[in-house]
Write a structure and sequence with these properties.
binds zinc ion; mainly beta; 9 strands; three-stranded antiparallel sheet; Metal Binding Protein, Guanine Nucleotide Exchange Factor, Chain A; two-stranded parallel sheet; 1 helix
Length: 148
Amino acid sequence: MATPSEVPSLPVPWPENAEIKVYTGGCHCKAIRYEFSHPDIYSMPVVNCNCTICENRGYLNVFTYAKDFRFTKGSADDMTTYAFGDCKIIHRFCPTCGTSIGPTFPAKAFVVVNTRTIDDIDIQKLQLKPVDGKSWPSGPGTKVGEAK
Ligand SMILES: [Zn+2]
């Protein structure tokens, strides 16, 4: 059992004792497939950020631990990446169909999943949480609602 200091915090913390589900998803052409663990996505806030990249790519984001995300088809090496500014965020997308599965923070122990790429997700049922990333001086920070 890890002590709290050993457990990295997520930008949107999971409720204690939440039932953890396994979600699957991937890109449109199915070259990239993934699965990850997360509490019921409809019961938690989904980050709707207005920073330039989130708006441009249509991200609606949830967060999971890097150890709880894995590719089931393709890999990170099969994806094209994009980074800008000093955000230290790597945006990953399928080189064939262009789908963005979500950015990663290499220095952090979590990854971001673009809920739009989750299998059978009902976007209309998500609890979108507005986040004002546009106002942060150097783009989105690593803590929701907190500037760097
Ligand atoms: Zn694809």
